[in-house]
Design goal:
This protein is α/β, with parallel strands linked by helices. 50% of the residues lie in helices and 12% in strands. It has two domains: 153 residues, Rossmann fold; 107 residues, Orthogonal Bundle (N-(1-d-carboxylethyl)-l-norvaline Dehydrogenase, domain 2). It has a seven-stranded mixed sheet with strand order 2-1-3-4-5-6-7, with helices on both faces. The longest helix is centred in the middle third of the chain and has 29 residues. The termini are far apart. Bound molecules: 6-phosphogluconic acid (6PG). 6-phosphogluconic acid binds next to helix 7 and helix 10. InterPro entries: 6-PGluconate_DH-like_C_sf, 6DGDH_YqeC, 6PGD_dom2, 6PGDH_C, 6PGDH_NADP-bd, NAD(P)-bd_dom_sf, Pgluconate_DH. Belongs to the 6-phosphogluconate dehydrogenase family. Keywords: Gluconate utilization, Oxidoreductase. GO terms for molecular function: NADP binding; phosphogluconate dehydrogenase (decarboxylating) activity.
């Protein structure tokens, strides 16, 4: 089937290749002319036969502007799919705006990162059944080959909601492996920490793809000496915690792993300075000075 694809970065570019390998006709647009198939969104719309389907794969901050621009060159019966990491609460207002123009909307949480091109992408879809049905050939080409890896999670918003929770879990899992790694590295007994991590890849209860990737990272740099611990986040963990607060759901692990990222960015902790100052004030305890 034909698909327009807007945004040909690390994710979109690889998705274009996977879809083409499966025999689909993809017309891609990107602001980088060197990788773009057309020079404008209008050019993209012209190349597609109606009713058109256009998948948007751009960074979360520019999604609404991109969709609004796209809506100007699309029309009645067309569908826009947002596969970026948008906040789920943006989906319903978007769908309403597009609905007034007769344009359908589907939100898709896409997981798999740079490995998706070869392994397939995990897809979490939100939207009306008729729109999802129309896009099934595309979803089937993008998803992994096995039985799993695709879900129609619910109405508009449910795809991004599921992906948000997926990413919250991703934070917690990564952090648990990271803490285990640190404890073994600090111990007097374990002399082969990368070896233990590697051994866990088969047979153990904690084997997983994230563990495989930790092993890969340790193969490249056994003490992670090249890296700083400063860890970014792009929003999904914060949204997960926002939802936990709204619904009063105790997300202990995920919240702690999000806060650990914030702590990773501090040279020195103002809170711990205050604790140190208070110990000195009430107990006369010695403090470490800069
Ligand atoms: O499932 C995935 O493929 C990843 O989750 C992917 O979506 C991305 O790598 C994260 O969004 C990073 O999120 P943070 O920057 O918040 O760690």
């Amino acid at each position: 089937m034909q698909l327009g694809l807007v945004g040909l970065g690390r994710m979109g570019g690889n998705m274009r290749e996977r879809l083409r390998s499966a025999g689909h006709e993809v017309v891609g647009f990107d602001h980088n002319a060197q990788i773009s198939d057309v020079t404008s969104l209008a050019g993209l719309a012209e190349k597609l036969e109606s009713p058109r389907a256009v998948w948007v794969m751009v960074p979360a901050g520019v999604t609404d502007a991109t969709i609004d621009e796209l809506a100007e060159v699309l029309g009645e019966g067309d569908i826009i799919i947002d596969g970026g990491n948008s906040r789920f609460s943006d989906d319903a207002p978007r769908a309403e705006r597009l609905n007034e123009l007769g344009i359908g909307y589907i939100d898709v949480g896409v997981s798999g990162g740079v490995w998706g091109r070869q392994n397939g992408y995990g897809l979490m879809v939100g939207g009306a059944q008729e729109h999802v049905d129309r896009l099934m050939p595309i979803f089937n080409a993008l998803k992994p080959e096995g039985e799993f890896g695709f879900v129609h999670a619910g109405p508009v918003g449910a795809g991004h909601y599921s992906k948000m929770v997926h990413n919250g879990i991703e934070y917690g899992l990564m952090h648990a492996y990271a803490e285990g790694y640190e404890l073994m590295a600090a111990s007097e007994l374990v002399t082969n920490v990368p070896g233990v991590i590697k051994s866990w890849r088969e047979g153990t209860v904690v084997r997983s793809w994230l563990l495989d990737l930790l092993d890969r990272a340790l193969d490249e740099d056994p003490e992670l000496a090249e890296l700083s611990g400063y860890t970014e986040d792009t929003g999904e963990g914060r949204w997960t915690v926002d939802e936990a607060v709204r619904l009063a759901v105790p997300l202990n692990v995920i919240t702690a792993s999000l806060f650990a990222r914030f702590a990773s960015r501090q040279d020195d902790s103002p809170a711990m300075k205050a604790v140190s100052a208070l110990r000195q004030q009430f107990g006369g305890h010695a403090v470490h000075k800069r």
